[in-house]
Design a protein that fits this description.
The chain is an alpha/beta fold. It is built from 17 helices and 27 strands. The chain has three domains: 385 residues, Glycosidases (TIM Barrel, Alpha-Beta Barrel), CATH 3.20.20; 203 residues, Rossmann fold (3-Layer(aba) Sandwich), CATH 3.40.50; 57 residues, Immunoglobulin-like (Sandwich). The longest helix has 29 residues.
Amino acid sequence: MIFDDCTMAPLGRADLSHRRPTALPGFLFGCDYYPEHWDAALREHDPARMQAAGFNIVRMGEFAWDRIEPEEGQYDFSLFDETIERLSRHGISTVFCTPTATPPRWLTYHHAEILRVNAEGAVMQHGSRQHACTIHPLYREYSRTITRALAAHFQENPHVVGWQTDNEMNLHFNECHCASCQREFGEYLRLVFDNDIDALNRTLGTAFWAQTYGNFEEIQTVRLQKPHTVNPALLLMYYRFMAFGAARFQHEQVEILRAAQPRWWVTHNSPGGHIHLRGLFLRDLDMLGHDHYPTFHQDPETRPANQAFTLDTMRSFGGNFIVMEHQSGAGGSRLWALDTPEPGEVRLMTYACIARGADSLLYFRWRSCRFGAEIYWRGILDHDNVPRRLYHEIAGIGAEVDTVGQEVLGTSVAVDVAVASGDVDVLDAHQAHHLGLPSPAQIAEEIHQYYYQHGYAAGCVHPADDLSGIKLFFLTHWAMFDPAYVAGLERWVREGGTLVIGGRTATRNMYNNVLPDRIPGPLRELAGVTVTEYGYQVAPDKRPLDFVVDGETVHSTLWYEQLELAEGTMTYANWQTRHLAGTPAISLRQVGQGRVVYVGTYLTPEVIAVLGPKLASMAGLQPLLPSAPDGVEVVHRENADKRLWFILNHNEQAVSLNDLPHGVELISGMIVAGGLTLEARGVAVIKECR
């Protein structure tokens, strides 16, 4: 086995901080390019047009295995050699990709055993993508072979500066039940439990429903509802097995690439389900890549808040990132289509990305394709190859980021209030047995949205991260909670932080079984509370449970908890109705210079609407720009030497801003001293004078 820490997740690493900048030598600005889709005549003017748009990078090759290796062992790099060379003459470098998301037909035809199998037993077929099993030993061997061939061919090419592994791994299909996975799942569990089947049975609770296993060969991959509810502990182990398999698949590629050329940087773009991004997967990469399509969120009014949460979540995994695919035109698939960005929207989305942690950015894609599954996934150029509004808008951005991009490198995003995020394993544990309750991510987004809309420096941070500088931190119903996080949280609270713990947090162990300890388990002493009764609210309208905070009545709608307070813990709010009347609903405990607030219900928007401002006041929060009108987003990126103010006007009309810092507006070069006017969908980036 490659990894000695595959037995447990999530796995931390000291430098995987939301504050970590990338080590990129310059701001990369460009697009995703598919020369295999176009003839030479159509491609002739591409390099010059890209250069005119300010591009210095393209990504290519992620779906071109059949072009690179048209027959097994027969390689043809000529198209890409010629393309890379032509682009380099216009100052454009290349990030190449391992093409393993789409194996060639000769491979799937002669080795159908590598195809993935879904939970219904259907074998995936050639003609789409992600249809090959990344756990299958034979497919892993072919993956290593094509990666070695690419690495050897490009290792001395100075114009290839980095690599992307695969493409959006596990995004569309994140399970497999093929014969190889059946075998390897048992071997994975054998490793986790040190070849002790009795330890597995004890730990995973197989005594329930006569699941006891006599050996590791008897264990099957877990299929939901076949025929009924499955063991949530074993299901979580299956999800971890899929995460381990994806990380191992990538690791084998990364080892080959780094051995061939140490100067290359390596990333991966927007991995999908069951991939642990604070451990096995991300430690192999220089930075995480993100594919950003804001109009998947269909409501244009709430889209900016959703975009901010998405970007902050991405940064919570391991710091600043590179956007490998940024929406340019409308997206569209067989059954649906997305909004076409209106004038100024792509620019506004681009600056939102940079404000919230993007250290480089590429648009998807250069030219709209005329064939295949994505014929209406629009690019910078239309199908007829004519540059129009979008090309000119992006070219304008290219001229701006020549200055702005260099200033952001080495800075990180300032966060005052954060929600717990960045842990796929916690979300998998919830999904394995969720009771119909919203996921921690859904609640986190709703809390984030509240503080975003009120102008605070809101972000997403993992509880194992460095919380220094953060004033208010929410643990959003992480039922599975690692006790190792408690010491760091307590230190942060003692130094002045305000910790808010939502109901049901820390109620399961790291194998997704209910703790025998009194709730909230490892957080009980820090919070100073014990939950003596809890329940799901099936009919909150007919059996209403309310509590009052400073004269405001709050309705609990999902979950309730009755609290018993330890000595020194105060009641912040009492339940007012039914059998809970007069008992604590929310507690407050002073710990050192800080405090812990335990909320015995779910932190729904209704609850946060009342608690949100009170917690902000308690933690000493201030909006970044109190005078900013509604619809204006303010973000700080900073380091020890400078602070950058990103001011984004999401309104469809101009706004006037006051109380701005004295500094240089980097896009225009103008000096700002107090105020400015931003046009509709306008952007300002102010470098504060210190």
